[in-house]
Amino acid sequence: MNSSKIFITFRTKSFIRIMKLISFKNYHLLSDFAATEIANAIKDDPSLVLCMASGHTPVLTIELLVKKLTEEKIDYSQMKFLGLDEWVGLPPVNEGSCNYFFKTKLFEPLQLNASQCFLFNAMTNDLEAECKKMDAVIADNGGIDVMLVGIGMNGHIGFNEPGTSFSIHCHVAELDNSTKTVGQKYFKEETVLHQGITIGLGHLMDAKKVVLKADGKRKAEVIKKTVEGMVSKNFPASIMQNHNNGFVIVDEEAASLLSKPH
Ligand code: PGA
Asked: Measured in angstroms, how far is the CA atom of residue 175 from the centroid of ligand 1?
C-alpha cells in the first residue's frame, strides 16, 4: 500500500481550515508520491510553473522525477522551473549552493533550456533588484502552479525564517542561528552563512498547490507543530494550515509524534 493514511484537519475560528496530511511507510514511497504528483501535473499542463526547494528532502523526488519524465516521454519543454532560495554570497559553482544542486540534479539531466530555469543570483550586489526580478518572473508566468518545499528545524520554509510575514514576496533574510548551524551540512568546509534570498510566503499562499515534504525522526517535532500547532509567523510552516490546497506529506518517522486519532 502506498500511503498509510490521510488525515484532514479542521480548525474552527473565523473560518474552516482544511489541510491534507498524507503519511507513507518510508522515504522512498514518500518521494515517489511527490515525483508522481509533479510528473502528472506536467503531463496535464506542459507549461506548468514549478517551484522547488533544494536540500536533502527533495533529492530522491528529483531523481525519480527525472526518471519519470524521461521514461514516460512527458513533454516538459514549456515547463518553467523556479528555485526557492539561495545562500547570499555563494557562487553557483559552490557544491553547497542551491544553484549547483538544481543544475546538476535537474537542469543537466533533463537538458532544460536556460529560458525555462530561474534561480536567484546570490552574488549580485543588488539583491533587491534580484528579488524584484523573481517577483516579476512569477507574475509574468501567471503565478506558481506547484510548489514543493521542505521544512527547517526552526520551522522555516525556504529562508522564510521565524517572524517572517505571511504576505511577504521575494526578499533577503537575515539567517536564524539554527539555519546557519544546520546549513553547514551542505558544505564540505565550514562556510560563513549570513543571509538568504528567497521566494516569500505570500507567493506560497498564492501558489495553486503547495506540498510540504518531510522525512525522518528529526523532523517529527516540527511536523507536529506544523500540523497541530498554532498558526503563527513565529513558526512559518504553520502557514500550511491556511493554504486551501496545501498538503503535508511525511514518512512514518516524521509523523511519529502526531496525536492519534487526528
Ligand atoms: P533539508 O532542509 O531538506 O536538508 O532537511 C530543509 C530546510 O532547511 O528547509
From this structure: 14
